[in-house]
Every structure is written in C-alpha cells, then in structure tokens.
Amino acid sequence: MLKDALPKIISEELPGAITKEILKIREENTAGAIKPLYPLSIKSGQGAMVEDFEGNRYVDFVGGVGVLNIGYSHPEVIEVVKQQADSFFHSMYNITTHENYGLLAKKLNEIAPTTGTSRKTYFANSGAEAIENAIKVAKSATGRKNIIAFTGAFHGRTLMAVTLTAKKSLSKGIGADAPGVFRAKYPYLYRKPEAMSDQEMIDHCIESISQIFEHSAPADEVAGIIMEPLQGEGGFVPAPIEFVKALRQVCDDHGIVLIADEVQSGFCRTGRMFCTDYWAEAGVRPDIICVAKSIAAGMPLSGIVVNGAIMDRVLPSTIGGTFGGNAMSVAAGLKVIEIMEREKLDERALEIGATVTKRYEEFARKYPFVGDYRGIGAMIGLELVKDKDTKEPYPEKVNAVIDYCFHHGLLIENAGAYGNVIRFLAPLVITDAQLLSGLDILDDALANALA
Q1: Ranges in the chain, pLDDT < 70
Q2: Contacts 24+ apart (CB under 8 A), 4-8
Q3: Taking the model in full, what pTM does it have?
Q4: H or E stretch including 425?
Q5: What per-residue confidence (pLDDT) applies to 150?
Q6: What are the CA-CA distances from residue 433 to residues 183, 202, 355, 440 (Å)?
C-alpha cells in the first residue's frame, strides 16, 4: 500500500506528460498569483506518501503546511464523513443545531489550555477566519480598538489577518491595512544582536510593548496581543517561556486579552495536543486559542476556544457565518481528536522530533551553510546562511535543496522572512523507514548543494 511505501522516482523527466497537461490547465484557468512550489499533481495520498499520475512516489515533509498531522486519507475519517453525508451535508448553526458541533466544542473546551473556569468555542472555516474572529471577540469583550502583533508573525491573508502578518510583501499593492494594529518585537534569539544575552533580548522585546503603550497606543486602548507560540512562516522560531510569562504579566496588568495562534502548531504537532500546553505546565495560559489546519484532517474547519467569561461579553451577532462548523467538517474533527489521543500522536511527535533533531545536528557539523536548527516536537526549522558568523540568509541554497529533493522523491518547503529556512511538518503517522529515507534525501541534497 502507498502508506507503507518508500519514495521512488520512475519518470525520465519531471513533470511527466499527464502532469504537464494538468499544470497547463491550471496555468490557463486559475489565479496566476498562486504559484505552485512543485510541478506536481497528486493522484493519491496515504499516510505521509503521495503519488503522481506517472507513478512517482514522494515522502511528504510539508503535510499540507501542517494540515495532515494524521496523514492523507485516513480511513476512519473518510468513513465518518461518508456517514454524515448520508444524513445531511449542511445546517447553518445560526439557524438550527446539529449535534456534532456541540460535541466537538465540548471536547475542545475540555482539552484546550486557556484561562478561566469555563470555555466557549466558535467554529469557522479557515485559519484566517479564526484570527479575524479572535480579534473581534477581544475587541467586543474589552470595548477597546487596538491590537498588538509581532515581528515575524503570520496570521493569514484576509484584511485583519494580513495586517497582523509581518511580511508586507503579502499585502503589497492592495491598499491600506486594517487600522489599530501595532507591532512589537518577537524574540528571534538566533538573530539577536551579538552583544545581547538571551534574557536581554527577551527583556528588549517586552520593552518594545511598553514603547507602543508610551508612543502609539495607550495600554487601556489595547484589546489584545496576538502571537504564535512557535512562529511558522516567520522561520519556525519558538517563543521562550520566559518571554511568554512576561507577556502574560503585561496582559494581566493592563486587562489585555492574550491570543495564541495555534493554527499551525496545534493538534499534537509540538509533542502536546497544543503548544500552549507547555505554557500551562509553566503556569501561564492564553485567553483565546485559535485552531485550524490539522483539526479536521483536510476538511475545512477552524475555531477559537475562548475563556468563557470573555466570550460571554461578546455582543450578539458579532460573530457568525454560513459554513462555520459545517456538519461534515465537525464530524471529521471529532474523529481526528479521537485518533490522536488513541494513537498518542503527541508522543510520536516527540519521537519524530528527536530523530530529526539528531540528523539536523549532524548537518550543522557537516555543512558550513547550516546556521541553526530549532523547534518543538515535530515542528522544526533548519536555517541556511552564507556565513555562520554574519548569519547572512541563504535562500538561493534553500531553493537548490528544494529542487534536488523533488527530483529524488522528497517534498520540503521554505519559510522565514528571508526564505532561508527549511520547515519540517511531516505527518505524524510517517513510518520510521519513510522518515529516515526522507532525511537521507535531504542529506544528499545538502551535500549536492555544498558541491
């Protein structure tokens, strides 16, 4: 079966003839602003493996950019979606009630580590929608107008979400940003000033919030501070727990809602069900957690899990939407969490992460352009630089590695403000043989890039 197979390229050239025709249709009929990273069209996918129309097999270290933690085409999820389809596709939750919406909300309220003695969950369709609604909840509950986000952040491409996003090339040419967004500094410790200690960098980043209060947005006019516990597009940069504790104190001191964007880091990816479980273990919690991606194994679903006292202050009709919490998606979501808990995918993420980190440590010794590797659990970044002293980014080398990997049966993707980080987001159901095979291909790609 494909789910147990290893990567193998059989075509004399890539892409093959059938895939070329599919790509031609794409180019002629779909938005040219969305460019495919690979000239690849998937015919089938199982577990951590995909196969194209020519029969080439690839091990996937991208996983739909964090969507496929339980892998492609999980048979139990397929079955519950089929069962739901036999009953009904859709019932708008603003109009009627369907059981699984409430059951999935109840489950998330039980396991999500937010503040408060009770929690309330709202469902939408995409990560960006989750972000938009988290901001609306924070503003409605506090009666305040401003939001603070961080350097390196990625929160989506809708208007508020792309304003919160640090990489401004994503909003170039589309007009004014949403108002009331201010940016503080995120502790990217690998790129801190040479003279600074880690703690001094953390203090400097917290001080940047105080500077916003002083010069741009008074604290009593700030509704929320939003951050990723482990930045994804920003380069797979974990937030130090000392920074999180200080940030929580800032929010508590000023009545500000702390929002954790777990769209990419959630659902066992980091070795816990949520990355913010590590926060809770250290004694701090966010007020709102945004979830999406792997929540429903590829079905469109997202949500926000909110401190109940905060959600209860939201005005009627502030949130809502036609397809949010679609019956088929929430059925998938219930099954996904059941599978994750039963198969202990949080523990599997730690095993995978240990294997990857050991190889990345070897890469850092072998290759002069491997500047850093970091992450939590099975969400790990490998940063390439032209010089380990100057740390000048090396996106060209990353592009060469991506191309080599594709032609040898491995799918990887870049990340980071400079495009010089290789991200690891392989499905957590990847076999040991597939994981090692993919790491061997990556090793060969780095060696080829060195040569």
Answers
A1: none
A2: 4/47, 4/431, 5/49, 5/57, 6/57, 6/59, 6/433, 6/434, 6/437, 7/49, 7/57, 7/58, 7/59, 7/408, 7/409, 7/410, 7/434, 7/437, 7/438, 7/441, 8/56, 8/57, 8/409
A3: 0.97
A4: none
A5: 98
A6: 43, 40, 12, 10
